[in-house]
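User: two proteins, same treatment. go.

Assistant:
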Amino acid sequence: MFSWFQQNTPIVVNEKQRLLGSAENALMQASQQCQGYMKFGEVLHIRGPHISSNTLSMAINHLQRRHPVLRSRLQINPEKSDTYILEEDDTVQLKIRQIPRKRVDHQIFWRQEWRERERDITAIGQGLTEFWLLQDPEDDNDDNSPREIVVICEHSVCDGLSLSNVAHELLIALAGEDDSIFQKSLNWPITMETAIQQSNNRVQRWLPNASSGTTIVGGTQGTATNQLNFPETVLFDKYNNLLVVDRGNNRIQFFNLTTC
């Protein structure tokens, strides 16, 4: 019965580890083999007082308390050498590069620096995110000078939206406006495949060696008994009936697979 469904590798190995999904592994493999090809970043253009490395480090520590990925090391899966694991470690120190530049270059300097460093790969055993701090040393006493913080991450564990969210939270941490959001950790993020299936509001059956699946439950969003609304988890009872946690409808759906 279980072979009817696409067998995704379990996301969480234990509470401190998470396996990358198939799409995430593909992106990480490309980044490792093609010298950082799948890295991307976001630039924060800031006007304000001097930012010390210690101040930035403390703000990053706030983010690490909130996001498991930011406090994790990239490790090779010991069970399958061509796949990767995120291993949570509270001692992870993300790389911070302090790069001096002239004020007149504040609009373009980060581009030049990116070209020089874009081929850097994420080392096994290290974090997947790094930060650059760009400012003019002669502006240390100027409270309204331009400064840039560049956040760089592996595409396998983030997209543009999530990176923008981290950048926004970094500004909150630097300003000390709402430290309460950093008091509790978020859960491990779901895989890309899971997110796509949730958005499609369906459960598919995959036969062995099939190149495509067949929708057996859902397929359209709604509240009817044959519809789903952002399903979260698929389970089986001892009789191999299908149970779907239909989160958007605040219910658990029961399906007899012999009739599906």
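Protein 2:
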Amino acid sequence: MSEQAGGSSSNPFLDPNIPLLHEDATPEEKDLHWYKHVYQGDRMPQLTLRAVGMGAILGMLMSVSNLYTTLKVGWAFGVAITSCVLSYVIWNAMRVFTGGRLSAMSILENNCMQSTASAAGYSTGATISTCFGALLLLDPEHRHQPWWIVASFTLATGAMGVFLAIPMKRQMINQEQLAFPSGIAAATTLKSLYSQGAEAIRKAYALVAALIVGGIVGILNTTEGTLGFLDRFFAWMKAHLFSIQLPEQIPAEGLRLVHGKQLVGFGFESSVLLIAAGMIVGLRVSLSMLASAALLYFFITPWLVGIDIAHANDPAWVVSIPLVGGGTLYHPPRWGLWGGTAVMVFASLTSLALQWKTVARSFTMLRRGEAVTESEQVRAKLAAIEVPTGWLVAGMIPISIAMVAIQVVAFSIHWWAGVIAVAMSFVLSLVACRATGETDTTPIGAMGKVMQLTFALIMPRQVIPNLVSAGIAANSASSSADLLTDLKSGYLLGANPRKQFL
């Protein structure tokens, strides 16, 4: 479909040599254009053991990193770009060490690898660090859930999100061609790695150098008593040369004292994790968080501590800013948690409400389904490479049964409540995926809060069902959005979507 005079056209693909397609093209024309000019899944290897193996290894590392980051700062970062660059560097290094006996990975193999790594990397944050982390904190004895519950719950919710993405792919990627910016970024990165030679190598090695710096800082920042050999090494360095161990906070006593006592967390953390996080989220978000922290520590805390001291002799007074560490430290975050959580909940719900057009378009897709008139020619070609809708039914039936069974057996949740949680997960995943496609932000927090509010109505004063249902919504939504992001990357590179799904 080449550009015609007098008509507007667009080219969402990365290759300028691909003919332009009219913006008012029908779904049939879009599919045929992609199949003729972009698709190359039959011309180069894609789903190979080495790609899946490399992706699985990187995914294991990324899942641990993602879990730590989510527990530390409450954020989960995409691993697709990091994975594809690391795979490119590691595989080419292995080719050098083996004297060229290993063949180079194709661009579609690398995309398959990053899809595998991304799926594994995203599997932990939304469930283990949130749902099970909350269950651990709420248990008076802080008991961990058995491994089989954590594993089965994470696997079932992740698989549910993957299968729920099947009907969304054709609508959101093929027909509407939503942006999914992270998918575009991953595809662009792979294109640059395979086409720009020396510049791509410099970018790859810059990433590896940053990983090494982060690892060294992490080792130097290790808390005393964590690893015995590091403690001995730090002690030897301090005795013979100088101390190289980084303090937990700079300055150690904090930036300010309130009534002669230190404040918990009021200083610079000697870690590159939050520095990197600030680079990723950007200046606007970082400044907003800095302003909120300054408001809490410079204004609210001294004011509340003064009120607490004024009522020190009142036995009925409830302290706003508690003392910890044997009465030597004030703990402002414990107070800020309540106000901050309330602001986050209603900010998320307000943001979701303001995106009512996105929500409405999601449900419009449900009404339309895939009732698109296509010629038999296009239908036959795409049927061989697209994920069949029948896989949705074949996958969702056993997964839904397993998900309800896990809720009943592991958490003593009524079966009907489990069915509601599974049914709502489809609707919430639909909204979350569209938001990801349009804004590159997956509102898993908002989706979880919608589920929590629903269960607060149908099962009031039931904490465990409330948390578990939110975990189901969050992980299924994040898994669906992550898969669609990967499929967007594959769509731009001409990958076989069925192989990528597998």
